[in-house]
Design brief:
41% strand, alpha+beta, 18% helix, signal, 5-stranded antiparallel β-sheet, Phosphatidylglycerol/phosphatidylinositol transfer protein, single chain
Length: 163
């Protein structure tokens, strides 16, 4: 029993010396071993009425938000699509693209002409994205692609434009 106590004491002392007596290091270790959970969501697909460097004016636009339960990871969109529904089938919108707005925040957008060519009863838009999670800490190796895509489907707001 005495040897076990001495062994535990020396292991604790070594850990403290290696971590420069940083007592917060133990909380970092426990946080790293926890399960990483990320959630994603889209805003409604709509016709943009503003112009920024990241979102062209009058483009068809939606925002993707990815939030994880730890700041020790970053995300990257690995696959995405912006479709319209034509005769019950998904068709790529013209000029669709993706821009990063900030950490975990992205803009999916398509050419404004999609809205002008929309049927009078409205156009159904669909956005889909897969994302991968990476570790920001070189001591932790995480590369995981989420199996379930982020997804939204709605009638594109303000499309076609009112006459």
């Amino acid at each position: 029993m005495r040897n076990h106590k001495l062994k535990c004491f020396f292991i604790t002392l070594i850990i403290l010396v290696v971590n420069s007596f940083n007592t917060n290091a133990t909380t970092i270790v426990t946080r790293q071993t926890g399960e990483i959970k990320c959630q994603c969501s889209f805003d409604y697909i709509h016709k943009s009425n503003t112009f920024t460097d990241n979102v062209p004016k009058n483009s068809i636009n939606t925002h993707l938000n990815i939030a994880c339960n730890t700041k020790d990871v970053s995300t990257e969109v690995s696959e995405y699509a912006l479709w319209k529904v034509v005769d019950g089938k998904y068709v790529n919108m013209q000029g669709f693209g993706l821009r990063q707005l900030g950490p975990g925040r992205y803009s999916l957008h398509a050419d404004p002409s999609e809205c002008y060519n929309a049927p009078k009863e409205g156009m159904v838009g669909v956005a889909m994205a897969y994302f991968t999670v990476y570790s920001n800490n070189p001591g932790i190796v995480i590369t995981k692609e989420w199996e379930e895509p982020c997804y939204v489907e709605n009638v594109v707001i303000n499309c076609p434009p009112p006459v």
